Amino acid sequence: MADVILCPHCLSRVEAGKEQCPFCDKSLRNTNPPPGTLPYASLLAGRYTVGRHVSTDGEGVVYAALENNGGVRVVLKEYFPVTLSEGRDSAGAILPKEGKEVLFKTTRMDFADLHRSIMRITPTTGLAAVLDVVEANNTVYVVLEQVGGESLSHYLSEHPGGVSAAQARSMMQPVMEGVAALHKAGLVHRGISPENILLTGGAARLCGYGTLGLRTEGSELKSQLYEGYSAPEQYSAAEFEGRYTDVYGLAAVFYRLVAGQAPVSARQRLVSDSLPSAQQLEPSVPGHVSAVLEHALEMDPAQRIQNVPELMGSLMSARAAESLNQSRREWAVSGKSLLAGSLVVIAVLFALLLWSILGRDSAVTTPESASQPASSAAPESVLVPDFTGYTYSQLQSDPQFSANYRFAITAQEYSSDHAQGVVIDQSPEAGTTTTEGQPLIELVISKGPEKVEMPNIIGFTRESAEKELAANNIKASFFMIENNGDYASDCVVRTDVEAGEFIDVNEVTVNVYIAKERVVINPPEPTPEPTPAPSPSAQPGA
Predict the structure, then answer these.
(1) 323 compared with 93, residue with greater pLDDT
(2) Mean pLDDT, to the nearest integer, of 196-214?
(3) I need a surface site. Which of 18, 109, 137, 176 has the fewest CB within 10 A?
(4) How far is residue 526's CA from residue 104's CA, in Å, rounded to a whole number?
(5) CA 310 to CA 459: how far, in whole Å?
């Protein structure tokens, strides 16, 4: 039985290999560019009709396609790395370059694993869905939903002056929520830019997924970075990347939206950092928004805003931004204190080491100890003290304990009476005597009260906030507040419990405040319509 495809023009079922559709009379001849691309109107894996070639990057080839069973238009990406492949054989299988076989296989697995992970969390607000992952032709194909609308880069070409901060928040809200979902699943996008954000039906969706190699300069693949939007750590394969890498990309897009131009490329900033603030370029940008973007676009990842919820909340309101600044100041002070404390600890440990060496030497050279038979020394009884109330780190760092006892954590339990990390039970019990030279003390450590950490939901839509709270078993009451345009509509403005606080879910109900639709202050008075002149009265009998 001959293979059957769908006509890419009229979606009719047609025998594969025909040069013309018998139903719409349009051509089915191969027009995809040689060499190497899959033929137009060919069948893949018995289920997908390959359409026109769309684009090629260092990772592979993108095609328009059709899912034959449902007649759904999709996007197909084929893993076909130009640096690791040398073409196809006569059956269509991709051939790795000589000496690159193992690298081709491992990177192909990375490609498949990434998209299977995304498939498990999509559909999700703000993310283009991965629908299928197919292995064929000695490679992997990813099937993605076809998102309609225009790219954000095209939108910005028609709106070069940018948009207001409130508009930018509304546009970027779903994308930020989508990236937060990626991070929660342990994934990093690394390709956030206007080219990979699609605007459809008034909402934004993020696409353009890629492996680490595609988004890192100097990797085994031909990299694809976005000047102005890629983070500085992406310009070296020796640097670590993380969630903060996507924070940089999101902030860069937001900067472009409100400031009217893209940030200076991180490649250039690595040489000479001359990035103006968003408010310098566009005075109408609120001061707290400009300050938040500066923090999120820090060159040093350690100084940057570390996660998307923090970025969303800080862009939402001046109060949240000030809280962020305060936290950063406290972090800087605590970092200096930690450094000073570390130096003291190092000095103490060094002194203990010298004492230990000198003590051992003197024990070896003492005549009495040398002449004493080992068998004559009777084992001493040791009284086990009470270690409850101490933390494990205190026991390990205190010489009078660590030199005479060994400690092992055997269990952790919730406790309303003891803080997290504190010893609540031990074995042997306090007061027990033992003749063991350095007895082992088994410890039970408190996990603290059985409470739940309040997540940061500032900036989330109500629907997403409800899901996040429900996932943590947190009860909530929602209240709508007036919106003068400073907030994104239907998004969380504040909560009466700060993010990071631990609450008893059985006793506490969190109050969540949601911004209403934007209210226009002092709308212009409508121009009154002129009163029409009265028409002449009809004469009787006319």
Answers:
(1) 93
(2) 92
(3) 109
(4) 67
(5) 9
